[in-house]
Amino acid sequence: MRRYDSTSARCRVVPAPGHFPVRMITNGAVDRTVHGWIADQHSRSTVKNSLAVLVRVMEQAVRDGIITVNPARVTGWQREYKQAEDELHNPRALALRDWPTLLRLAQALTDRSHDHYRGWREVVVFAAATAAGIGKVSGVRACYIDTENWIWTVRRQTTPAPGGLTDKNTKGKRARQVPLIEEIRPMIAERILAVGPNPDARLFTGPRGGRISTAVLRDATHWDVVVTSLGHERLRRHDLRHTGLTWFADAGVPAHVLRKIAGHGSLLTTHRYLHPDMTQTTNTGHALTAHLNPIRTPLTLAVQPTAGRRR
Length: 311
Known about the structure:
Blueprint: E1 4-5, E2 10-11, H1 27-39, H2 44-63, H3 77-88, H4 99-112, H5 118-129, H6 134-138, E3 145-146, E4 151-154, E5 176-179, H7 185-195, H8 214-221, H9 223-229, H10 239-250, H11 255-262, H12 267-271, H13 278-292
Antiparallel strand pairs: 1-2, 3-4, 4-5
């Protein structure tokens, strides 16, 4: 299955369970696949279209006598999708608690991988520290990093990739700048030194030099097993972005600045990460008072006498 777009038709279809004999595709396998699509935040229409294609394929297998029952006719996924939407209305609830928690997760993922490749740890830490998705992190090139000001410019990559495809490193055409905190600067400097003088070299790659996608990270690090063992059963790869944005908001970054860092199209989306308590609200009032006080107009204005005023 593949994604198809045209001016006359628009149909988004994401990959199905994988390369399995038809007889091995069970209702449980299809159910897990659908829940995986939802967890990866595919739209409701994408899930519906993908499932419809799978249903038709398996229906043909029933007619051909290969199987007796269509396992792709699953139900209840709409409720699961609604629950996922409700969670996104409060993205703060999806964030990791603090920096040590992130480091424990990153190290556990590396230890669980069969090759103990430290790149998995670095990708996870970088994604959370910069509030970026795994796909964005995988697209980071050496020339995108300003080591003088420690700024990462997230922009659209227009260089044709192998096969003639264009690698889009950000949604739409919006470019944004993300600050790189001190905790990850040594790691970035080491990465830049390792890739050598090539400015277009990717800083984060898999153990064989390939691009890291969310699915690659999940499979290589046994993500589901690790996060469950650490008590983060519902943590997804994209929640690393929620974690970073929540930390930025808690650090006092203004909403309009946070919006630019996140690349949000709407300020309403950014406001979901803000959680002002009563102290912050009070301090905001004092700050506004201090700002207005020097330019406040007196309540009464003295009337200056006018020479030669007629009675």
